[in-house]
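Anyone? Bumping this.
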Amino acid sequence: MILWTMPDAGDKTKETYASFIALFKKENPHIPLSVRVFTRNVLWRRMFTIKNPTHEEEVPDLVQIPHYWTALLVREGVAENLSQLDPGLSLSTCLIPLKNHCYKPGTKDIYSYPWWFDVSALHYRADHLKLVTADPERDLSTWAGFLNICESLRERFKDVPGYYPVQNGDWRGSLSMRSALPCVWGRGVDLLTPDLTRTSVATKAFKEGIRDYITLALRNLMPILRERGSLGTMVSGKASLMLSRKLGLSTFDARRGIQVRTLPIPATGEGAAAYLSGMNLFINVRSQHKKEALAFIKFCARPDIQTHYAKLLEVFPAYEDALELFMLSAGRRLRVYGRILAQAKTLPNITVTGTIMEILKRILAVSATQIVEGRFTQASLDRELDQAAKEIEYLLSIYEG
Amino acid sequence: MFDKKSYTLYKFHKQLNQAFQNKRELLESALPVLRNLFKLDRIYFFDWQQERAILSLRMMCKKEYCMDKQEDISVISEPAFLKQLLREGITETTDLSYPAIYVLVKWQRPSMELKGGEVRTYMQEKVGVLRLERFKKTRGFTPQERELIKALGQEISHNLRNTEIDQAKNQRLNVSTALNALSTVFASSLRLNDGLELILQGVQKYFRFDRVRLYLTDSYARRIKEALCVDISGQVTHQTADQISPQEQGLLKEVFDSAVTYRSTRSVIYIPLKVQRSKVGFLAFDNVLSRRHIGYLDFISLQQFASQMALSIDNARLFERVQELSNYDELTHLPVRRYFNEKFAEEIYRAKRFDLTLSLMIIDIDFFKQINDSYGHQIGDWALQEVSRIIRTSLRQTDVPCRFGGDEMVIMLPSTNSEEAKIIARRLKERINAITLPTKYTGGEEIHISISQGIASFPSDAGSAEELLEKADQALYVVKKNGRGVFAVYREVADQVQGYSKE
């Protein structure tokens, strides 16, 4: 059986999977399981080719996907109907915000199963912030306050070579939509209108939200297109704040003497928001090992395994009972996450969501290059977003009309 | 016999002396060999995007394994680093706290480009960078090691070139096999719609497009008359002219007027279907959902395929036109008896199988012989044409009229009982009664045309095609016997058919 996954644990992904798969194999010694790790970009492209593989291409049995890809894979006819495979399969204990992303839209047929989820937050080095504010929670509650703190930190650490107030939380070291979305949501808009028939990408509020986020790179408060690890990191003392998911936070915990605290993402407008990203598993319709794949899915959904994996990866369990256990056993940071979860939002489970994210990702990649080359203008970004809105409307008319 | 450097190179060459499917597979073999050879803690491979001055991290090798990676690093502010790397092919990094060395890897791969509508093939230079790392400050790279690393980088360059050439060859082979299979399917099908669905599904499957659309023009190539579309679900949908949006209609002119059919986004291509000067339609391929680029190889292959497809569509259309001519009466433009009989037999079979009703109507133009005799055959033909025109324009899409012979016409009304048939008969009677012969031929006299109609229904009046025809004819006989100009349903006049003979 072959499982395709993403590098969730960064450079330690292989080791993390090795220990997790060993647990599964201990209970299911008769099921052989190999793991292939692909970046999200590669996986996205492969989702469009696994339906018709060439003779030299490998066919996976199980695939890890961002939860909002489910509708696309159902539409494509790539995902197996899990309700049909096992009529007893239930999502009764699955967290409510994750449920809709498991179904074929408009039905209660399960096509993907939740594995884990994460949510974005603001992390800061307590020792650094102490130097510029007595009340980080108050000063970091708004985006304007956050920018002011960044400026103060820069001034305070001006003698530290390679220092940036904000560490780039994006894996690619670029501008990321996942980090930009809370800024957009904070401005009171979403990617799409509530009925999911039109896009809001060309609206003033959406553009302002993107601008809020890009300001970090424009004002040189956060490094972009610079190698992660070589400069601007909280661990090395060359950064003090980071907007990111929970995943990977243990790097700080491992360093003695560094106290990292967590707060909700500063509000860009009336309300604060956090980005909730879910990870699901689906079974390939072409799989010859569907029963075994289902056994792995059920194994991953078990409360004890959920809690174990969440700790291993530093993410959250996707089921109520496991999440309760996880939160109760946790410290101060997880209690803050209780607040953050209450304001978390996610992307809709429709066919074109993945494509919309690809379009916006490309715009941010272009902006990142322009910023580095010193030729970025707000007008060109606005034009790109207007053009993107037209493309999205066209996609909606084809696939969601 | 060998010095150490030559021996290491030989060993490295031997380990990589095999065919790789792609660059990724090659790197997955080469990077661990380098890691072991130089006792490295980590090794990276980057693609150098020269136009953006960005190093894009693609793969990392650590311990016993390799892993895909994705990270973009701008090198725009580091001209000294770049200059040295380009000049010497090797340089040491200064921004890391441990020893690391960059090695330039250059290779060529077969590429194509479109210039002024012409396809040009050429070898494109690609540049990659290897970064070799040792985490201990004290374990720097010696000059001998640097020299050897540079030589091994060249060996990897050589392997990359061979792999890319093999990959391009395999890709071309796959494409030509696919096109050959598709052409065979299409060439063997004379009926247009039989082949088109299979072809579209085949093109989507082999080329793995998100969506393939085929737009077919009308016979004057002025507008799109129908479209077929297969999307990511693999299902084919049909659109008739009235379902095609004005924007799509607008594409027709754009595709045929513009030389550029390869869109700048490289996710959509349009390919016109032309045979000599006739415009058959056009194909649209897109990856707008997945945002994958469509390669030049796909574009060129599809262009070749499109010319075969256009010819096949043109042939199939010609075949259909010939069929149409042999199925339709030249004077009245109504189907001929042979065609009608085929359809009639099919409908009777369907009605029996699914318990449906069906009515049959026989029409006779009243006093047609006198019209011919009094005003000439030209007026007789005109009367036939006018009556046929009214029949053609007064029926539903599912009804099948036919010129049965002389001035006799038959209409098959599927899923219609006798009461519904009467409504149609009444409508025809009223509209045909409104026709007057041209007064210049009648000496100014206003002469109206009238018709007699006999109706029989399945299954109430008859249980077979022949019987139904006979019963409708008997009903017509009664109408004619009683003075013409009206219609009658067999069941209602069955008691009056005495004296009827088939002749």
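Late reply, but here is one note on the structure posted above: Chain A has 17 helices and eleven strands.
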